[in-house]
Write a structure and sequence with these properties.
The complex is a heterodimer of chains A (156) and B (145). Chain A has 156 residues and is mainly alpha-helical. Chain A has seven helices and three strands, in the order αββαααααβα. Chain B has two domains: 32 residues, no CATH class; 108 residues. In chain B, 5% of the residues lie in helices and 46% in strands. Classes of the chains: A mainly alpha (156), B mainly beta (145).
Chain lengths: 156, 145
């Protein structure tokens, strides 16, 4: 199905079109990351409708738009967004592969200090894996950490 | 109703009028519609079953999740309706906004940003600690950016 010409269309309306016209795509990819030494590993789970939008193309804005909005929100006097138009008027992204979509999603929904410095410590702060590579049960979930062995594998 | 126009695929009107029941301003429809919702299956499956305006879920640990928005909210003063169910225990839960940090639960507003809503769930049984939930249902109302 061809994506309509969405430039200038509110992102909400684009998502509504996608919801009506695209089948959700359940990705098997998961992103495991650690953003604090005091906390367990976090797991990013892609949304199937969002993934369908990413694979379709012409719907989602470039990820830098979200970064600009995050800068605005980080201001101490922030009350509400005044540059929301960036979401709606910026040329949408073309179709992505599933792997490109995961990269985009990392830059959107994982803290920047994690993905910018994912490989600067003694072990990776972030790992992209398949769903079946995660523990089969959630026992001791609050103690999950990225394995030290991942770093060994990377060094090799 | 005066001043309405119809464009291709779009009806522009300030009011909707029923023949007998009266009328309602379309601003109620726009402002009152849910801006994001999701049906999230936590536990081992860890999958979003269906949603609107969600890019991903962050699983922060036991009973703590973030709903990340595709189309950002206009401010962080929005409202959330949540419920969930833990089938193995046969109980529902109480969900509430969670602090931005896993360990600091003192300020729930830290978990409400324009890009994500972080929540934690407690069972309603006799052991109300933060618990895994098998089905999390969440609806967000508010203003979009």
């Amino acid at each position: 199905m061809q994506t309509p010409e969405f430039k200038g269309t509110h992102l909400w309306d684009r998502l509504g079109w996608a919801k009506q016209n695209l089948e959700g795509v359940q990705s098997d990819y998961r992103v495991v990351y650690e953003d604090s030494v005091d906390e367990c590993a976090k797991i990013l789970v892609p949304d199937p409708n969002w993934m369908a939008c990413a694979l379709q193309g012409g719907i989602l804005p470039p990820v830098w738009v979200y970064h600009e909005l995050a800068k605005d929100e980080a201001q101490p006097d922030f009350k509400k967004h005044t540059r929301g138009y960036l979401l709606h008027t910026t040329e949408p992204m073309p179709a992505m592969t599933e792997e490109e979509a995961i990269e985009y999603l990392i830059m959107k929904d994982v803290p920047q200090d994690v993905w910018r410095n994912w490989n600067t410590g003694n072990k990776p702060k972030m790992v992209i894996c398949r769903k079946e590579q995660l523990p089969a049960t959630r026992e001791w979930r609050n103690a999950w950490k990225i394995s030290e062995e991942v770093a060994v594998d990377m060094a090799a | 109703m005066a001043g309405e126009t119809i464009m291709a695929g779009t009806i522009v009107a300030d009011d909707l009028q029923h023949s007998t029941a009266g009328s309602v301003g379309t601003e109620y429809v726009v402002n009152g519609s849910a801006k994001s919702w999701m049906n999230y299956v936590a536990t081992n499956v860890n999958t979003i079953a269906d949603s609107l305006n969600v890019s991903s879920v962050t699983d922060h640990g036991t009973g703590q999740y973030s709903q990340n928005f595709s189309s950002s909210m206009g401010n962080s003063v929005y409202a959330a309706t949540m419920c969930s169910h833990q089938e193995s225990a046969g109980v529902g839960s109480l969900g509430h906004p969670s602090a931005g940090s896993f360990t600091n639960a003192s300020d729930g507003r830290n978990g409400m940003t324009t890009s994500a809503f972080r929540m934690r769930y407690h069972n309603t049984d006799a052991s109300p600690g933060t618990r895994e939930q098998e089905i999390c249902l969440q609806v967000i109302h508010g203003d979009l950016a």
